[in-house]
Amino acid sequence: MSGLDGIAVSFRLNGEERSLMAAADRRLIDVLRDDMVLTGAKEGCGVGRCGACTVLLDGEPANACLLMLWQFEGRDVVTPEGLDAETDAAILREALAAENAFQCGYCAPGFVMALLSLLRRNPDANEADIRAGLEGNICRCTGYHSILRGARAAAEALRPARAGDHP
Q1: Considering 27, 52, 78, which residue would you say is the last residue of a domain?
Q2: Reported pTM
Q3: pLDDT given for residue 162 in this prediction
Q4: Assuming Cys at both sites, which of 62, 86, 141, 152 could form a disulfide with 57, CB separation 3.0 to 4.6 Å?
């Protein structure tokens, strides 16, 4: 059996240890959606340009459509579903909803993943930081103004929460 026929991988998915056997060239987006029935990450373009499939890989945003099975051995993968119990994610989602940031919502999970990673790394993110952090995400419905307003509101709301975490 060649490496492309099947390999075993172990990784952490949304906080749980997982193992599976599949073709090494199988994409993470397909494993998540087809095998794990986690449909929060969406396939948009399939070539890493739209950000709809964004997940957090070891805490950093990554396009699940570009990651092959062999690349997530021993890694930590968080999907949009993995954020459901996280307070900072709830604050971000509420801020985006308050600004009516999305129309159809297809791109929303990818934007949330990218913004959450940015705000965790840089709680003092300004508009330029937010724009740079969202460069890999495309929304075909809005003019981005509502997304940016929601992101700024989330950054403001998260600052006091973060200040309480750090003495």
Answers
A1: 78
A2: 0.91
A3: 63
A4: 62
